[in-house]
Protein backbone atom coordinates (compact mmCIF):
# COMPACT_ATOMS: atom_id res chain seq x y z
CA UNK A 1 0.00 0.00 0.00
CA UNK A 2 1.73 3.21 -1.19
CA UNK A 3 -0.47 5.60 0.78
CA UNK A 4 -3.20 5.45 3.41
CA UNK A 5 -4.97 8.62 2.30
CA UNK A 6 -7.76 6.61 0.82
CA UNK A 7 -7.69 3.87 3.51
CA UNK A 8 -10.48 3.16 5.94
CA UNK A 9 -10.65 5.35 9.08
CA UNK A 10 -10.22 2.30 11.38
CA UNK A 11 -6.95 1.37 9.71
CA UNK A 12 -5.67 4.94 9.99
CA UNK A 13 -6.54 5.02 13.70
CA UNK A 14 -4.73 1.70 14.22
CA UNK A 15 -1.52 3.10 12.67
CA UNK A 16 -1.69 6.26 14.80
CA UNK A 17 -2.45 4.52 18.10
CA UNK A 18 0.43 2.04 17.74
CA UNK A 19 2.97 4.53 16.37
CA UNK A 20 3.56 2.43 13.31
CA UNK A 21 4.79 5.39 11.14
CA UNK A 22 7.20 6.58 13.86
CA UNK A 23 8.66 3.07 14.33
CA UNK A 24 9.15 2.61 10.63
CA UNK A 25 10.67 6.09 10.34
CA UNK A 26 13.22 5.45 13.13
CA UNK A 27 14.21 2.03 11.74
CA UNK A 28 14.43 3.26 8.19
CA UNK A 29 16.49 6.33 9.11
CA UNK A 30 18.87 4.12 11.13
CA UNK A 31 19.36 1.72 8.26
CA UNK A 32 19.90 4.56 5.76
CA UNK A 33 22.39 6.47 7.89
CA UNK A 34 24.23 3.59 9.62
CA UNK A 35 24.26 1.12 6.70
CA UNK A 36 24.98 -2.06 8.84
CA UNK A 37 26.51 -5.16 7.31
CA UNK A 38 23.79 -7.34 8.78
CA UNK A 39 20.61 -5.25 8.48
CA UNK A 40 18.33 -7.89 9.94
CA UNK A 41 20.28 -8.24 13.12
CA UNK A 42 20.57 -4.50 13.25
CA UNK A 43 16.85 -4.10 12.99
CA UNK A 44 16.31 -6.76 15.65
CA UNK A 45 18.61 -4.89 18.08
CA UNK A 46 16.98 -1.54 17.34
CA UNK A 47 13.49 -3.00 17.92
CA UNK A 48 14.63 -4.26 21.34
CA UNK A 49 15.93 -0.77 22.15
CA UNK A 50 12.60 0.79 21.20
CA UNK A 51 10.77 -1.76 23.38
CA UNK A 52 13.00 -0.96 26.32
CA UNK A 53 12.65 2.84 25.96
CA UNK A 54 8.94 2.79 25.17
CA UNK A 55 6.95 4.23 22.28
CA UNK A 56 6.29 7.56 24.00
CA UNK A 57 9.97 8.53 23.83
CA UNK A 58 10.43 7.36 20.26
CA UNK A 59 12.27 9.75 17.96
CA UNK A 60 13.11 9.47 14.33
CA UNK A 61 16.87 9.48 14.97
CA UNK A 62 16.81 7.03 17.89
CA UNK A 63 18.35 4.26 15.78
CA UNK A 64 21.15 6.45 14.39
CA UNK A 65 24.58 6.54 15.92
CA UNK A 66 25.06 9.90 17.74
CA UNK A 67 28.15 10.63 15.69
CA UNK A 68 26.12 10.30 12.50
CA UNK A 69 23.04 12.33 13.48
CA UNK A 70 22.36 15.49 11.28
CA UNK A 71 22.93 18.88 12.84
CA UNK A 72 19.37 20.35 12.22
CA UNK A 73 16.53 21.46 14.35
CA UNK A 74 13.50 19.21 14.25
CA UNK A 75 10.39 20.90 12.92
CA UNK A 76 8.02 18.01 12.67
CA UNK A 77 7.58 14.91 14.62
CA UNK A 78 8.14 12.50 11.74
CA UNK A 79 8.65 12.45 7.96
CA UNK A 80 6.79 9.17 7.52
CA UNK A 81 3.47 10.84 8.36
CA UNK A 82 3.68 12.42 4.91
CA UNK A 83 4.79 9.11 3.40
CA UNK A 84 1.80 7.26 4.82
CA UNK A 85 -0.58 10.21 4.26
CA UNK A 86 -1.15 10.80 8.00
CA UNK A 87 0.45 14.26 8.23
CA UNK A 88 -1.53 17.48 8.24
CA UNK A 89 1.31 19.84 7.24
CA UNK A 90 5.04 19.61 6.42
CA UNK A 91 7.00 22.71 7.44
CA UNK A 92 10.63 23.60 6.70
CA UNK A 93 12.59 26.86 7.30
CA UNK A 94 12.53 27.68 3.61
CA UNK A 95 8.81 27.14 3.46
CA UNK A 96 8.37 29.23 6.58
CA UNK A 97 10.29 32.14 4.99
CA UNK A 98 8.24 31.88 1.81
CA UNK A 99 5.02 31.70 3.79
CA UNK A 100 5.87 34.78 5.85
CA UNK A 101 6.93 36.72 2.77
CA UNK A 102 3.70 35.78 0.91
CA UNK A 103 1.53 36.60 3.93
CA UNK A 104 3.21 39.99 4.42
CA UNK A 105 2.89 40.88 0.71
CA UNK A 106 -0.73 39.76 0.57
CA UNK A 107 -1.60 41.72 3.68
CA UNK A 108 0.08 44.83 2.24
CA UNK A 109 -1.72 44.42 -1.07
CA UNK A 110 -5.08 43.99 0.64
CA UNK A 111 -4.73 47.10 2.76
CA UNK A 112 -3.43 49.17 -0.17
CA UNK A 113 -6.31 48.13 -2.42
CA UNK A 114 -8.82 48.88 0.33
CA UNK A 115 -7.31 52.35 0.81
CA UNK A 116 -7.21 52.92 -2.93
CA UNK A 117 -10.85 51.95 -3.38
CA UNK A 118 -11.91 54.16 -0.50
CA UNK A 119 -9.91 57.15 -1.68
CA UNK A 120 -10.83 56.92 -5.38
CA UNK A 121 -14.50 56.20 -4.70
CA UNK A 122 -15.01 59.46 -2.92
CA UNK A 123 -13.60 61.34 -5.91
CA UNK A 124 -15.26 59.33 -8.77
CA UNK A 125 -18.83 59.09 -7.43
CA UNK A 126 -19.43 62.76 -8.15
CA UNK A 127 -18.07 62.44 -11.69
CA UNK A 128 -20.09 59.27 -12.27
CA UNK A 129 -23.26 60.95 -11.03
CA UNK A 130 -22.61 63.93 -13.26
CA UNK A 131 -22.01 61.67 -16.24
CA UNK A 132 -25.24 59.77 -15.58
CA UNK A 133 -27.20 63.02 -15.31
CA UNK A 134 -25.70 64.24 -18.57
CA UNK A 135 -26.62 60.99 -20.34
CA UNK A 136 -30.15 61.10 -18.92
CA UNK A 137 -30.61 64.67 -20.16
CA UNK A 138 -29.30 63.69 -23.61
CA UNK A 139 -31.71 60.72 -23.75
CA UNK A 140 -34.61 62.89 -22.65
CA UNK A 141 -33.87 65.52 -25.30
CA UNK A 142 -33.54 62.79 -27.95
CA UNK A 143 -36.89 61.21 -26.95
CA UNK A 144 -38.52 64.63 -27.04
CA UNK A 145 -37.17 65.32 -30.53
CA UNK A 146 -38.25 61.86 -31.69
CA UNK A 147 -41.80 62.34 -30.41
CA UNK A 148 -42.00 65.77 -32.01
CA UNK A 149 -40.73 64.39 -35.30
CA UNK A 150 -43.34 61.60 -35.31
CA UNK A 151 -46.12 64.09 -34.62
CA UNK A 152 -44.87 66.32 -37.40
CA UNK A 153 -44.59 63.37 -39.79
CA UNK A 154 -48.18 62.25 -39.04
CA UNK A 155 -49.41 65.79 -39.57
CA UNK A 156 -47.58 66.07 -42.89
CA UNK A 157 -48.94 62.73 -44.12
CA UNK A 158 -52.46 63.68 -43.09
CA UNK A 159 -52.16 67.02 -44.85
CA UNK A 160 -50.77 65.30 -47.93
CA UNK A 161 -53.70 62.86 -47.94
CA UNK A 162 -56.21 65.70 -47.68
CA UNK A 163 -54.48 67.46 -50.54
CA UNK A 164 -54.63 64.33 -52.72
CA UNK A 165 -58.33 63.80 -51.88
CA UNK A 166 -59.07 67.39 -52.73
CA UNK A 167 -57.22 67.03 -56.03
CA UNK A 168 -59.21 63.87 -56.89
CA UNK A 169 -62.46 65.62 -56.02
CA UNK A 170 -61.51 68.49 -58.32
CA UNK A 171 -60.67 66.04 -61.12
CA UNK A 172 -63.99 64.20 -60.68
CA UNK A 173 -65.86 67.47 -60.63
CA UNK A 174 -64.10 68.66 -63.77
CA UNK A 175 -64.80 65.34 -65.49
CA UNK A 176 -68.44 65.43 -64.40
CA UNK A 177 -68.97 68.93 -65.81
CA UNK A 178 -67.16 67.95 -68.99
CA UNK A 179 -69.37 64.87 -69.47
CA UNK A 180 -72.45 66.88 -68.60
CA UNK A 181 -71.55 69.47 -71.23
CA UNK A 182 -70.91 66.75 -73.84
CA UNK A 183 -74.19 65.02 -73.00
CA UNK A 184 -76.09 68.31 -73.33
CA UNK A 185 -74.57 68.90 -76.76
CA UNK A 186 -75.32 65.31 -77.81
CA UNK A 187 -78.95 65.62 -76.68
CA UNK A 188 -79.38 68.83 -78.63
CA UNK A 189 -77.95 67.21 -81.74
CA UNK A 190 -80.07 64.09 -81.22
CA UNK A 191 -83.24 66.19 -80.84
CA UNK A 192 -82.48 67.99 -84.07
CA UNK A 193 -81.90 64.71 -85.93
CA UNK A 194 -84.99 63.14 -84.39
CA UNK A 195 -87.13 66.13 -85.25
CA UNK A 196 -85.81 66.14 -88.78
CA UNK A 197 -86.53 62.42 -89.17
CA UNK A 198 -90.04 62.85 -87.71
CA UNK A 199 -90.79 65.69 -90.11
CA UNK A 200 -89.69 63.55 -93.03
CA UNK A 201 -91.81 60.63 -91.84
CA UNK A 202 -94.85 62.85 -91.31
CA UNK A 203 -94.49 64.26 -94.79
CA UNK A 204 -94.10 60.78 -96.23
CA UNK A 205 -97.14 59.52 -94.31
CA UNK A 206 -99.23 62.44 -95.50
CA UNK A 207 -98.42 61.58 -99.08
CA UNK A 208 -99.24 57.94 -98.49
CA UNK A 209 -102.46 58.89 -96.72
CA UNK A 210 -103.59 60.96 -99.69
CA UNK A 211 -102.96 58.06 -102.04
CA UNK A 212 -104.74 55.66 -99.74
CA UNK A 213 -107.78 57.93 -99.36
CA UNK A 214 -108.10 58.16 -103.12
CA UNK A 215 -108.22 54.40 -103.40
CA UNK A 216 -110.24 53.65 -100.28
CA UNK A 217 -113.44 55.17 -101.62
CA UNK A 218 -113.68 52.43 -104.25
CA UNK A 219 -113.09 49.59 -101.78
CA UNK A 220 -115.29 50.64 -98.87
CA UNK A 221 -117.99 48.09 -99.56
CA UNK A 222 -115.50 45.25 -100.00
CA UNK A 223 -113.68 46.09 -96.76
CA UNK A 224 -116.94 46.20 -94.83
CA UNK A 225 -117.74 42.72 -96.05
CA UNK A 226 -114.29 41.43 -95.07
CA UNK A 227 -114.58 42.92 -91.60
CA UNK A 228 -117.93 41.25 -91.16
CA UNK A 229 -116.45 37.85 -92.13
CA UNK A 230 -113.41 38.35 -89.93
CA UNK A 231 -115.59 38.71 -86.85
CA UNK A 232 -116.74 35.12 -87.37
CA UNK A 233 -113.12 33.82 -87.63
CA UNK A 234 -111.65 35.42 -84.50
CA UNK A 235 -108.80 33.16 -83.27
CA UNK A 236 -109.16 34.45 -79.74
CA UNK A 237 -112.44 32.56 -79.41
CA UNK A 238 -110.61 29.22 -79.63
CA UNK A 239 -109.68 27.27 -76.47
CA UNK A 240 -106.42 28.26 -74.83
CA UNK A 241 -104.75 24.91 -75.61
CA UNK A 242 -105.64 25.25 -79.30
CA UNK A 243 -104.31 28.82 -79.42
CA UNK A 244 -101.13 27.65 -77.70
CA UNK A 245 -100.58 24.88 -80.27
CA UNK A 246 -101.04 27.41 -83.09
CA UNK A 247 -98.48 29.85 -81.70
CA UNK A 248 -95.97 27.09 -80.92
CA UNK A 249 -95.52 26.62 -84.68
CA UNK A 250 -94.28 30.21 -85.00
CA UNK A 251 -90.78 31.43 -84.31
CA UNK A 252 -90.00 34.23 -81.89
CA UNK A 253 -90.11 36.95 -84.53
CA UNK A 254 -93.55 35.88 -85.79
CA UNK A 255 -94.90 35.75 -82.23
CA UNK A 256 -93.75 39.32 -81.63
CA UNK A 257 -95.39 40.46 -84.87
CA UNK A 258 -98.64 38.75 -83.89
CA UNK A 259 -98.58 40.56 -80.56
CA UNK A 260 -98.71 43.90 -82.42
CA UNK A 261 -101.99 43.15 -84.27
CA UNK A 262 -104.39 44.20 -81.51
CA UNK A 263 -105.03 43.83 -77.78
CA UNK A 264 -106.68 40.44 -78.22
CA UNK A 265 -103.69 39.01 -80.05
CA UNK A 266 -101.35 40.66 -77.57
CA UNK A 267 -103.06 38.83 -74.69
CA UNK A 268 -102.77 35.54 -76.58
CA UNK A 269 -98.99 35.99 -77.02
CA UNK A 270 -98.62 36.58 -73.26
CA UNK A 271 -99.53 33.02 -72.25
CA UNK A 272 -97.00 31.64 -69.76
CA UNK A 273 -96.66 28.26 -71.50
CA UNK A 274 -95.73 29.98 -74.76
CA UNK A 275 -92.57 31.36 -73.13
CA UNK A 276 -91.36 28.12 -71.57
CA UNK A 277 -89.09 27.62 -74.58
CA UNK A 278 -87.39 30.58 -76.30
CA UNK A 279 -85.25 30.11 -79.42
CA UNK A 280 -83.16 33.21 -80.10
CA UNK A 281 -81.03 31.45 -82.72
CA UNK A 282 -83.73 31.84 -85.42
CA UNK A 283 -83.74 35.64 -85.04
CA UNK A 284 -80.09 36.21 -84.10
CA UNK A 285 -79.48 38.51 -87.07
CA UNK A 286 -82.41 40.87 -86.41
CA UNK A 287 -83.01 40.90 -82.66
CA UNK A 288 -81.31 43.40 -80.35
CA UNK A 289 -79.54 42.59 -77.10
CA UNK A 290 -81.77 45.03 -75.27
CA UNK A 291 -84.87 43.06 -76.23
CA UNK A 292 -83.27 39.76 -75.10
CA UNK A 293 -82.48 41.22 -71.67
CA UNK A 294 -86.00 42.62 -71.22
CA UNK A 295 -87.60 39.34 -72.39
CA UNK A 296 -85.56 37.22 -69.99
CA UNK A 297 -86.22 39.67 -67.17
CA UNK A 298 -89.98 39.54 -67.76
CA UNK A 299 -90.35 35.77 -68.23
CA UNK A 300 -87.50 34.66 -65.95
CA UNK A 301 -89.78 32.44 -63.83
CA UNK A 302 -91.41 30.74 -66.83
CA UNK A 303 -88.39 30.05 -69.06
CA UNK A 304 -87.34 26.39 -69.06
CA UNK A 305 -85.43 26.15 -72.35
CA UNK A 306 -83.13 28.71 -74.01
CA UNK A 307 -81.34 28.45 -77.35
CA UNK A 308 -78.57 30.96 -78.17
CA UNK A 309 -76.85 28.89 -80.83
CA UNK A 310 -74.61 31.07 -83.02
CA UNK A 311 -75.70 34.30 -81.30
CA UNK A 312 -73.05 37.02 -80.95
CA UNK A 313 -74.17 38.68 -77.73
CA UNK A 314 -72.73 41.14 -75.28
CA UNK A 315 -71.54 40.14 -71.82
CA UNK A 316 -74.47 41.85 -70.12
CA UNK A 317 -76.93 39.95 -72.30
CA UNK A 318 -75.52 36.55 -71.43
CA UNK A 319 -75.40 37.50 -67.75
CA UNK A 320 -79.16 38.02 -67.84
CA UNK A 321 -79.54 34.26 -68.31
CA UNK A 322 -78.66 33.86 -64.62
CA UNK A 323 -82.04 35.44 -63.72
CA UNK A 324 -83.89 32.36 -65.06
CA UNK A 325 -83.86 30.33 -61.86
CA UNK A 326 -86.01 27.51 -63.29
CA UNK A 327 -83.95 27.02 -66.46
CA UNK A 328 -83.49 23.36 -67.42
CA UNK A 329 -82.03 23.43 -70.95
CA UNK A 330 -79.39 25.86 -72.25
CA UNK A 331 -77.77 25.87 -75.69
CA UNK A 332 -74.89 28.35 -76.10
CA UNK A 333 -73.07 26.47 -78.85
CA UNK A 334 -71.13 28.51 -81.43
CA UNK A 335 -71.30 31.61 -79.20
CA UNK A 336 -67.91 33.32 -79.64
CA UNK A 337 -68.49 35.72 -76.72
CA UNK A 338 -69.05 33.01 -74.11
CA UNK A 339 -66.30 33.01 -71.46
CA UNK A 340 -65.53 31.21 -68.22
CA UNK A 341 -66.62 34.24 -66.21
CA UNK A 342 -70.05 34.25 -67.90
CA UNK A 343 -70.41 30.55 -67.21
CA UNK A 344 -69.71 31.28 -63.55
CA UNK A 345 -72.66 33.71 -63.41
CA UNK A 346 -74.91 31.26 -65.24
CA UNK A 347 -73.94 28.32 -63.02
CA UNK A 348 -74.60 30.31 -59.84
CA UNK A 349 -77.98 31.56 -61.03
CA UNK A 350 -79.30 28.41 -62.80
CA UNK A 351 -78.33 25.35 -60.70
CA UNK A 352 -81.21 23.24 -62.04
CA UNK A 353 -79.94 22.87 -65.63
CA UNK A 354 -80.36 19.34 -67.02
CA UNK A 355 -79.19 19.91 -70.62
CA UNK A 356 -76.11 22.02 -71.39
CA UNK A 357 -74.64 22.51 -74.88
CA UNK A 358 -71.21 24.24 -74.92
CA UNK A 359 -70.19 23.07 -78.39
CA UNK A 360 -67.58 25.08 -80.29
CA UNK A 361 -66.94 27.62 -77.51
CA UNK A 362 -63.76 28.88 -75.85
CA UNK A 363 -64.34 27.46 -72.38
CA UNK A 364 -61.33 26.23 -70.38
CA UNK A 365 -60.67 24.17 -67.26
CA UNK A 366 -62.27 26.91 -65.14
CA UNK A 367 -65.69 26.08 -66.59
CA UNK A 368 -65.02 22.36 -66.17
CA UNK A 369 -64.44 23.03 -62.47
CA UNK A 370 -67.85 24.77 -62.22
CA UNK A 371 -69.90 21.91 -63.73
CA UNK A 372 -69.77 19.47 -60.77
CA UNK A 373 -69.99 22.22 -58.16
CA UNK A 374 -73.16 23.95 -59.37
CA UNK A 375 -74.93 21.69 -61.90
CA UNK A 376 -75.71 18.79 -59.55
CA UNK A 377 -78.54 17.44 -61.76
CA UNK A 378 -76.78 17.74 -65.13
CA UNK A 379 -77.76 14.86 -67.42
CA UNK A 380 -76.81 15.96 -70.95
CA UNK A 381 -73.50 17.68 -71.71
CA UNK A 382 -72.01 18.58 -75.09
CA UNK A 383 -68.36 19.71 -75.28
CA UNK A 384 -67.99 19.11 -79.01
CA UNK A 385 -65.09 21.01 -80.64
CA UNK A 386 -64.10 22.69 -77.34
CA UNK A 387 -60.33 22.38 -77.56
CA UNK A 388 -59.12 24.65 -74.74
CA UNK A 389 -59.80 22.34 -71.80
CA UNK A 390 -57.33 19.56 -70.93
CA UNK A 391 -57.26 16.18 -69.22
CA UNK A 392 -57.06 18.00 -65.89
CA UNK A 393 -60.35 19.73 -66.68
CA UNK A 394 -62.00 16.32 -67.12
CA UNK A 395 -60.59 15.35 -63.72
CA UNK A 396 -62.47 18.29 -62.17
CA UNK A 397 -65.77 16.59 -63.09
CA UNK A 398 -65.28 14.43 -59.99
CA UNK A 399 -65.11 17.39 -57.57
CA UNK A 400 -67.87 18.09 -55.04
CA UNK A 401 -70.96 16.03 -55.74
CA UNK A 402 -69.57 15.32 -59.22
CA UNK A 403 -71.38 14.76 -62.51
CA UNK A 404 -72.55 11.27 -61.57
CA UNK A 405 -76.04 11.87 -63.03
CA UNK A 406 -74.63 12.51 -66.51
CA UNK A 407 -76.16 10.12 -69.08
CA UNK A 408 -75.27 11.84 -72.39
CA UNK A 409 -71.80 13.12 -73.31
CA UNK A 410 -70.62 14.54 -76.64
CA UNK A 411 -66.83 14.94 -77.08
CA UNK A 412 -66.76 15.25 -80.87
CA UNK A 413 -63.67 17.00 -82.21
CA UNK A 414 -61.91 17.17 -78.80
CA UNK A 415 -58.64 15.85 -80.15
CA UNK A 416 -56.64 17.11 -77.15
CA UNK A 417 -57.99 14.36 -74.87
CA UNK A 418 -55.50 11.57 -74.11
CA UNK A 419 -55.93 8.12 -72.59
CA UNK A 420 -55.63 9.65 -69.11
CA UNK A 421 -58.43 12.06 -69.99
CA UNK A 422 -60.77 9.19 -70.84
CA UNK A 423 -59.76 7.49 -67.62
CA UNK A 424 -60.74 10.67 -65.75
CA UNK A 425 -64.13 10.62 -67.51
CA UNK A 426 -64.66 7.03 -66.39
CA UNK A 427 -63.89 7.95 -62.77
CA UNK A 428 -66.16 11.01 -62.82
CA UNK A 429 -69.13 9.98 -65.01
CA UNK A 430 -69.60 6.25 -64.59
CA UNK A 431 -73.32 6.46 -65.40
CA UNK A 432 -72.98 7.53 -69.05
CA UNK A 433 -75.54 5.86 -71.34
CA UNK A 434 -75.13 7.72 -74.66
CA UNK A 435 -71.62 8.56 -75.90
CA UNK A 436 -70.80 10.56 -79.05
CA UNK A 437 -67.24 11.09 -80.31
CA UNK A 438 -67.22 12.16 -83.95
CA UNK A 439 -64.27 13.61 -85.87
CA UNK A 440 -61.70 12.13 -83.46
CA UNK A 441 -58.63 11.11 -85.49
CA UNK A 442 -56.70 10.76 -82.21
CA UNK A 443 -59.15 8.27 -80.70
CA UNK A 444 -57.54 4.84 -80.23
CA UNK A 445 -58.49 1.47 -78.81
CA UNK A 446 -56.74 2.28 -75.52
CA UNK A 447 -58.97 5.33 -75.07
CA UNK A 448 -62.11 3.23 -75.46
CA UNK A 449 -60.76 0.53 -73.15
CA UNK A 450 -59.93 3.10 -70.45
CA UNK A 451 -63.45 4.51 -70.73
CA UNK A 452 -65.43 1.26 -70.53
CA UNK A 453 -63.51 -0.01 -67.50
CA UNK A 454 -66.01 1.84 -65.26
CA UNK A 455 -68.65 3.13 -67.70
CA UNK A 456 -70.48 -0.13 -68.22
CA UNK A 457 -73.97 1.37 -68.59
CA UNK A 458 -73.31 2.62 -72.12
CA UNK A 459 -76.07 1.64 -74.55
CA UNK A 460 -75.30 3.92 -77.50
CA UNK A 461 -71.94 4.85 -79.08
CA UNK A 462 -71.26 7.02 -82.13
CA UNK A 463 -67.73 7.00 -83.61
CA UNK A 464 -68.05 8.78 -86.96
CA UNK A 465 -64.70 9.93 -88.35
CA UNK A 466 -62.52 7.88 -85.98
CA UNK A 467 -60.27 5.89 -88.34
CA UNK A 468 -58.00 4.35 -85.68
CA UNK A 469 -60.71 2.36 -83.89
CA UNK A 470 -60.30 -1.36 -84.52
CA UNK A 471 -61.80 -4.70 -83.52
CA UNK A 472 -60.13 -4.46 -80.09
CA UNK A 473 -62.25 -1.46 -79.16
CA UNK A 474 -65.35 -3.19 -80.49
CA UNK A 475 -64.62 -6.19 -78.25
CA UNK A 476 -63.94 -3.94 -75.25
CA UNK A 477 -67.48 -2.56 -75.60
CA UNK A 478 -68.85 -6.07 -75.03
CA UNK A 479 -68.93 -5.35 -71.28
CA UNK A 480 -71.67 -2.77 -71.98
CA UNK A 481 -75.28 -3.47 -72.87
CA UNK A 482 -75.09 -1.81 -76.28
CA UNK A 483 -78.25 -1.14 -78.25
CA UNK A 484 -76.94 1.31 -80.85
CA UNK A 485 -73.59 1.41 -82.70
CA UNK A 486 -72.54 3.97 -85.31
CA UNK A 487 -69.23 3.75 -87.15
CA UNK A 488 -68.34 5.51 -90.38
CA UNK A 489 -65.23 5.78 -92.52
CA UNK A 490 -63.30 3.07 -90.67
CA UNK A 491 -61.04 0.61 -92.47
CA UNK A 492 -59.83 -1.28 -89.39
CA UNK A 493 -63.20 -2.77 -88.43
CA UNK A 494 -63.39 -6.29 -89.88
CA UNK A 495 -65.63 -9.32 -89.72
CA UNK A 496 -64.01 -10.27 -86.38
CA UNK A 497 -65.99 -7.53 -84.64
CA UNK A 498 -69.31 -9.20 -85.52
CA UNK A 499 -68.30 -12.70 -84.51
CA UNK A 500 -70.58 -13.98 -81.72
CA UNK A 501 -72.38 -10.60 -81.77
CA UNK A 502 -75.63 -12.31 -80.76
CA UNK A 503 -73.99 -13.31 -77.46
CA UNK A 504 -72.01 -10.11 -76.83
CA UNK A 505 -74.79 -7.67 -77.78
CA UNK A 506 -78.10 -9.58 -77.62
CA UNK A 507 -80.22 -6.40 -77.28
CA UNK A 508 -78.66 -4.37 -80.10
CA UNK A 509 -81.28 -2.81 -82.40
CA UNK A 510 -79.37 -0.19 -84.41
CA UNK A 511 -76.18 -0.86 -86.41
CA UNK A 512 -74.68 1.91 -88.55
CA UNK A 513 -71.44 0.78 -90.20
CA UNK A 514 -71.25 2.98 -93.29
CA UNK A 515 -68.10 3.10 -95.44
CA UNK A 516 -66.35 0.29 -93.51
CA UNK A 517 -64.34 -1.46 -96.21
CA UNK A 518 -63.37 -4.43 -94.03
CA UNK A 519 -66.93 -5.77 -93.70
CA UNK A 520 -67.81 -8.72 -95.95
CA UNK A 521 -70.56 -11.30 -96.29
CA UNK A 522 -69.31 -13.07 -93.14
CA UNK A 523 -70.40 -10.06 -91.07
CA UNK A 524 -73.97 -10.30 -92.41
CA UNK A 525 -74.00 -13.98 -91.56
CA UNK A 526 -72.98 -13.11 -87.97
CA UNK A 527 -75.77 -10.52 -87.73
CA UNK A 528 -78.53 -12.94 -88.72
CA UNK A 529 -79.21 -14.36 -85.18
CA UNK A 530 -80.03 -10.89 -83.74
CA UNK A 531 -83.69 -10.78 -82.73
CA UNK A 532 -83.98 -7.08 -81.79
CA UNK A 533 -82.33 -5.49 -84.84
CA UNK A 534 -84.56 -2.87 -86.53
CA UNK A 535 -82.09 -0.53 -88.29
CA UNK A 536 -79.11 -1.64 -90.41
CA UNK A 537 -76.98 0.76 -92.44
CA UNK A 538 -74.14 -0.77 -94.48
CA UNK A 539 -73.81 1.98 -97.10
CA UNK A 540 -70.53 1.98 -99.06
CA UNK A 541 -69.57 -1.47 -97.75
CA UNK A 542 -68.59 -2.55 -101.26
CA UNK A 543 -67.56 -6.14 -100.35
CA UNK A 544 -71.10 -7.19 -99.47
CA UNK A 545 -72.92 -9.38 -102.03
CA UNK A 546 -75.96 -11.54 -102.53
CA UNK A 547 -74.56 -14.43 -100.48
CA UNK A 548 -74.09 -12.39 -97.31
CA UNK A 549 -77.50 -10.71 -97.59
CA UNK A 550 -79.14 -14.15 -98.07
CA UNK A 551 -77.59 -15.41 -94.81
CA UNK A 552 -78.78 -12.29 -93.00
CA UNK A 553 -82.35 -12.52 -94.34
CA UNK A 554 -82.60 -16.20 -93.39
CA UNK A 555 -82.25 -15.24 -89.70
CA UNK A 556 -84.84 -13.79 -87.30
CA UNK A 557 -83.60 -10.23 -87.93
CA UNK A 558 -85.34 -10.04 -91.29
CA UNK A 559 -88.79 -10.09 -89.67
CA UNK A 560 -88.18 -7.08 -87.36
CA UNK A 561 -86.01 -4.95 -89.66
CA UNK A 562 -87.53 -1.49 -90.35
CA UNK A 563 -84.74 0.40 -92.10
CA UNK A 564 -82.15 -1.04 -94.46
CA UNK A 565 -79.51 1.02 -96.28
CA UNK A 566 -77.38 -0.84 -98.84
CA UNK A 567 -76.26 2.13 -100.92
CA UNK A 568 -73.19 1.53 -103.14
CA UNK A 569 -73.19 -2.20 -102.42
CA UNK A 570 -72.43 -2.82 -106.08
CA UNK A 571 -72.43 -6.65 -105.88
CA UNK A 572 -76.13 -6.88 -104.98
CA UNK A 573 -78.52 -7.97 -107.72
CA UNK A 574 -82.19 -8.78 -108.29
CA UNK A 575 -81.78 -12.00 -106.28
CA UNK A 576 -81.27 -9.98 -103.12
CA UNK A 577 -84.30 -7.79 -103.91
CA UNK A 578 -86.42 -10.92 -104.34
CA UNK A 579 -85.26 -12.23 -100.99
CA UNK A 580 -86.03 -8.88 -99.39
CA UNK A 581 -89.59 -8.91 -100.71
CA UNK A 582 -90.15 -12.38 -99.26
CA UNK A 583 -88.59 -11.95 -95.79
CA UNK A 584 -88.76 -8.26 -94.80
CA UNK A 585 -92.50 -7.87 -94.44
CA UNK A 586 -92.21 -4.96 -91.94
CA UNK A 587 -89.61 -2.94 -93.89
CA UNK A 588 -90.41 0.81 -94.08
CA UNK A 589 -87.26 2.38 -95.59
CA UNK A 590 -85.01 0.80 -98.22
CA UNK A 591 -82.05 2.29 -100.07
CA UNK A 592 -80.42 0.53 -103.03
CA UNK A 593 -78.70 3.62 -104.42
CA UNK A 594 -76.00 2.89 -107.00
CA UNK A 595 -76.61 -0.88 -106.90
CA UNK A 596 -75.84 -1.26 -110.59
CA UNK A 597 -77.04 -4.87 -110.94
CA UNK A 598 -80.60 -4.11 -109.77
CA UNK A 599 -82.92 -4.06 -112.83
CA UNK A 600 -86.57 -3.66 -113.66
CA UNK A 601 -87.26 -7.22 -112.60
CA UNK A 602 -85.97 -6.58 -109.10
CA UNK A 603 -88.14 -3.48 -108.73
CA UNK A 604 -91.20 -5.52 -109.60
CA UNK A 605 -90.56 -7.74 -106.56
CA UNK A 606 -90.77 -4.74 -104.26
CA UNK A 607 -94.51 -4.50 -104.95
CA UNK A 608 -94.97 -7.26 -102.34
CA UNK A 609 -93.57 -4.98 -99.57
CA UNK A 610 -96.83 -3.39 -98.45
CA UNK A 611 -95.22 -1.77 -95.39
CA UNK A 612 -92.64 0.12 -97.50
CA UNK A 613 -92.83 3.93 -97.15
CA UNK A 614 -89.64 5.13 -98.88
CA UNK A 615 -87.46 3.57 -101.59
CA UNK A 616 -84.22 4.96 -103.08
CA UNK A 617 -83.08 3.20 -106.27
CA UNK A 618 -81.21 6.07 -107.89
CA UNK A 619 -78.14 4.96 -109.83
CA UNK A 620 -79.57 1.50 -110.63
CA UNK A 621 -80.21 -0.10 -114.02
CA UNK A 622 -83.94 0.69 -114.15
CA UNK A 623 -85.72 1.75 -117.34
CA UNK A 624 -87.68 4.98 -117.70
CA UNK A 625 -90.97 3.09 -118.14
CA UNK A 626 -90.67 1.49 -114.72
CA UNK A 627 -89.71 4.84 -113.22
CA UNK A 628 -92.84 6.50 -114.62
CA UNK A 629 -94.99 3.62 -113.44
CA UNK A 630 -93.66 3.72 -109.91
CA UNK A 631 -93.90 7.50 -109.66
CA UNK A 632 -97.64 7.27 -110.25
CA UNK A 633 -97.97 5.12 -107.14
CA UNK A 634 -99.23 7.11 -104.15
CA UNK A 635 -98.35 4.49 -101.53
CA UNK A 636 -94.52 4.67 -101.63
CA UNK A 637 -92.09 7.57 -102.01
CA UNK A 638 -89.60 6.71 -104.77
CA UNK A 639 -86.27 8.35 -105.47
CA UNK A 640 -84.84 7.73 -108.96
CA UNK A 641 -82.63 10.76 -109.54
Automatic annotation (TrEMBL):
Keywords attached to this entry? Leucine-rich repeat, Ubl conjugation pathway
Pfam families, sorted: DUF7885, F-box-like, LRR_6
Listed GO biological process terms: SCF-dependent proteasomal ubiquitin-dependent protein catabolic process
List the InterPro entries hit by this protein, alphabetically: F-box-like_dom_sf, F-box_dom, FBXL15_LRR, Leu-rich_rpt, Leu-rich_rpt_Cys-con_subtyp, LRR_dom_sf
Keyword field contains Cell inner membrane: no
Q: Which GO terms describe its cellular component?
A: SCF ubiquitin ligase complex
- The F-box domain, residue ranges: 232-278
PANTHER family reported in the protein's UniProt record: PARTNER OF PAIRED, ISOFORM B, PARTNER OF PAIRED, ISOFORM B-RELATED
Q: What is this protein called?
A: F-box and leucine rich repeat protein 13
Organism, per UniProt? Cavia porcellus (Guinea pig)
